[in-house]
Structure prediction request, 292 residues.
Amino acid sequence: MPYTPGTDLGGMQAALGGIRFNAVDTIGVAWRLKAEDGLLGWDSSEVRAEVTEREADHGAWASPVYLSERPITLAGTVEAPDKTTLDDALERLRAAVSLTDTTLTVYESVPKQATVRRSGKPLLSYITDRVATWSVMVTAPDPRRYDVTLQSGTTMLPSTTGGLILPISLPLTIASTTVAGQINATNTGTFPTRPLLTITGPVTAPQILAQQPDGTVRFLNYSQDLAVGDQLVIDTDAHTVTLNGNVGRRRFLTVPTGWPEIPAGGTVSLQFRSSAYNPTATLTATWRSAWI
Prediction:
């Protein structure tokens, strides 16, 4: 039967690359996910943990528990107006299951996404000259499911301008203007998330303080100066520090109290500091809320 482009076919919608499942695409191809087992692995990743039995005692010693990578299998059917269009649809599916980073989005009540790569052979089988079944396997190295909305904030170094104390008794007030030099980063998800921090110079030996909800503070101290136009990117998840897009500078960053992260359902205050004030220096933070 012919389908109208843009039709919602019901069920949970997902998108891999440029293909949206449980929907009809712009050329009338109907992509369906199986009602059962059509999206395996999205519910949770495996865990890495060890348990060592206690000697001469009951029970065992438990190691820290970490999430593993997240393998995901998508499966369903595809129906096209004719064989040529079906062949083209399957070629597009092969291309969407990329060997490089690709975004998988699942349209739950709060849409979430993961960055995936192909991790298995696509299984494609013709049923008729217009209908085929398909199954693809991808893996997300980062097991978190992220909000599709990227949050961000930018601040300058803290400063206070204006304001005078005059030796007169008149009710005269000259207000001052204060720039706090901080970004409040909130994670509405159920699992800690890690921000990407970008410092733009000129700035002298910049420092970032991340005040956690419990009041503790984590410090990032960069020992070098940034010139006009320099950009230093600190990836708090990958633990990398890059200057101007291609120069590694991790050795100049000290992390005395641990890398900052934004806890589940919490807000972290990211504070920008330097020993010398410059009005054009900025700190930009970007992050996504995360779910387990």
About this structure: The radius of gyration is 26 Å. The longest helix spans residues 83-96. The chain has two domains: 14-147, 151-291.
